[in-house]
Design goal:
With 588 residues, the protein is of the alpha+beta class. It has helices spanning 2-25, 163-198, 201-220, 234-258, 266-288, 293-321, 325-346, 357-402, 413-430, 444-451, 453-467, 494-509, 514-517, 537-553, 573-587, and strands spanning 29-31, 38-42, 69-74, 86-90, 97-104, 109-115, 123-124, 128-131, 140-148, 158-162, 433-441, 475-481, 484-490, 524-532, 559-561. Strand 5 (97-104) and strand 6 form a beta hairpin.
């Protein structure tokens, strides 16, 4: 719905623009090749002064002019332009020399000429050459063109416009062509950057296509003469032909490589590529031709281009039916330039569209395609980034869940080992002390048997929440499984570590479980082990486990530390109380 509204708005805008420009364009008169247009042929060596002696033939076609001079005469009074001053616009530039003779009613004649490679100030946007008589005091009696070594009379297009309208067309075409070329450059750079960023081959072909169309537009519009004036004429026309067939091949490569294998039958893909290369091969003689052979090649080239367009369109539709999102975007992007190119092959637009003809239509369709495809690629890239971010977030979440106990939300055994390795590495750099506390709930099975597993889970969560208060950069807390918990901490040793462990024991004993198990007390036994610097966590764990076993064997609800070189002896309560009073503030 949004796309249809946009198309309607575009068509409405074109209609309004056409209505506004219609009064200015109404007096632009094309000069058809009919009985009103007379011609003659002479040798190249004939001087311009031979004009009065020439015998002109008024027929729609001419022969024998490829290696000579073709003279074309027209009566400006038969083509009323509605203005006092008349400008002759010539739309074909594959020749060696073009001279124009303005014969006035008073018998005088004014000559103006350009040569291939030297158009001087006669060139105009849209492959046009403008000739305006300087004497406006006398009416024109006739206009005669002399074209040396013209490639094709059938491709020669002439228009008569008033001088004011010619200036309007010149400004309008300059603005439109400049905008289209700017969009092509921006699209080419963007597609190349996307091709490098997401490693997609078809975007590189698309960028190359936009570059080729840009150079074609710059040469066809003759803006390139500002940089290389020597290209004017035949070289520019031949370059445009070569670039235009190359752009068809690059467009075919872009669309066929964009579609994933399996979306389009391989024979159809190969046939589209074959027609694309055929267009390029047929374009070679079309580029080099300087004779009427060009008129014979043109229909073959047009049919091949139409076949290529049909095959590419069929490939895109086939991929769309198989659910290809890229094919949908490509069809939306390529539909306008394909329609424009097809239209130019079957309809003679001539010098319409303010003198730009079919070329200005193709140029703007190409700019549309580049911008549309860039926007579509940006949307796909945004979707890919969003999917990547979601995948990374899900991966991070899964990794975090893999290191977390699902019941208590603190670390599990795997998470504790990961955190312990980080703390051990840091302790090794600082030669700090690292301690391990193994905490086991006393008689937890009795709680489950008497009050049920749900009540036991409530007790586990309450103890885990109390232990989580000490979680920080120097302390990691985990549930190892069942009723066993652990704490790994650094920068505490000896009596301070023992006092801290006893403080933890007392805090757990102070937890309120009345809602789950009534007034029944819950106590824990704590086993302590410590080491200095980088150590073996497995050995540290075994030492703490021995100490925990000693605490259980010593009567439970107590703290026991392990000296690996001595027998296990639980610390006396007198020692714990003496150290706890002085360290309570720090360990809390």
């Amino acid at each position: 719905m949004v796309r249809s509204m946009a198309i309607k708005a575009l068509l409405r805008g074109i209609a309004v623009l056409s209505a506004l420009l219609a009064p200015w364009m109404a007096n632009a008169v094309p000069v058809p090749r009919d009985s009103r247009l007379c011609h003659a042929v002479t040798a190249l060596s004939a001087p311009d002064a031979v004009l009065p002696q020439l015998r002109f033939t008024c027929t729609p076609s001419a022969t024998g002019y490829n290696h000579g001079s073709l003279w074309v005469r027209l009566d400006p009074r038969r083509y009323p332009t509605g203005g006092d001053a008349v400008t002759l616009l010539v739309h074909h530039t594959r020749f060696d020399r073009l001279s124009v003779a303005f014969r006035y009613a008073n018998g005088t004649t004014e000559w103006q000429q350009v040569r291939s490679g030297a158009f001087e100030d006669h060139w105009r946007p849209g492959a046009q050459i403008a000739f305006t008589p300087n004497d406006r005091s006398a009416p024109l009696a006739s206009i005669t063109l002399r074209v040396d070594r013209l490639t094709s009379y059938q491709l020669l297009r002439l228009r008569l416009v008033s001088a004011g309208e010619a200036d309007i067309e010149n400004g309008l075409l300059s603005a439109l062509i400049g905008a289209a070329l700017t969009l092509l450059v921006a699209g080419a750079l963007y597609n190349f950057s996307l091709a490098l960023g997401i490693r997609r081959q078809y975007l590189a072909w698309q960028g190359a296509w936009a570059v080729v169309v840009f150079f074609w537009g710059a040469i066809w519009s003759q803006f390139g003469l500002l940089v290389a004036p020597g290209m004017a004429g035949t070289i520019a026309a031949q370059s445009c032909t070569a670039l235009s067939v190359l752009s068809v091949l690059l467009a075919t490569l872009s669309t066929t490589t964009a579609l994933e294998r399996g979306m389009v039958p391989q024979p159809l893909r190969l046939l589209a590529l074959l027609f694309g290369f055929a267009v390029a091969l047929i374009g070679i003689p079309a580029t080099l031709s300087r004779s009427t052979v060009l008129e014979q090649i043109a229909p073959v080239l047009a049919v091949t281009i139409l076949g290529n367009l049909l095959l590419v369109l069929l490939s895109l539709c086939w991929a769309i039916r198989r659910g290809s999102i890229e094919a949908r975007d490509l069809l939306a992007a390529w539909s306008v330039p394909m329609a424009a190119l097809a239209l130019t092959q079957v309809v003679d637009i001539g010098s319409r569209l303010w003198g730009g003809g079919s070329q200005i239509l193709v140029l703007f369709a190409s700019a549309w395609q580049t911008i549309w495809l860039s926007i579509a690629a940006s949307r796909r890239l945004a979707r890919l980034r969003a999917e990547r971010d979601l995948a990374r977030a899900a991966e991070a979440r899964a990794s975090e869940l893999a290191e977390r106990d699902p019941l208590t939300a603190i670390r599990n055994r795997r998470g504790l080992i990961e955190a312990a390795q980080v703390l051990i590495t840091a302790a090794g750099e600082d030669q700090a002390t690292i301690g391990l506390l193994l905490i086991d709930i006393d008689r937890f099975k009795a709680i489950n048997d008497e009050h049920g597993h749900d009540a036991g889970d409530v007790v586990l969560c309450a103890i885990a929440a109390r232990l989580a208060r000490w979680e920080g950069p120097r302390c990691a807390v985990a549930r190892l499984g069942g009723e066993e918990f652990a704490m790994v901490l650094t920068h505490r040793s000896g009596a301070a570590l023992t006092a801290f462990a006893d403080h933890v024991r007392q805090e757990i004993a102070a937890c309120d479980h009345s809602a789950a198990i009534g007034a029944q007390p819950v106590t824990v036994s704590v086993g302590i082990a410590e080491a200095t610097g980088a150590c073996d966590f497995g050995q540290l764990y075994r030492d703490a486990d021995r100490a925990l076993y000693a605490a259980k064997r010593g009567g439970r609800d107590r703290v026991c530390r392990i000296d690996p070189t001595a027998d296990v002896q639980p610390p006396s309560r007198a020692m714990l109380q003496a150290t706890a009073e002085t360290l309570a503030q720090r360990v809390g």
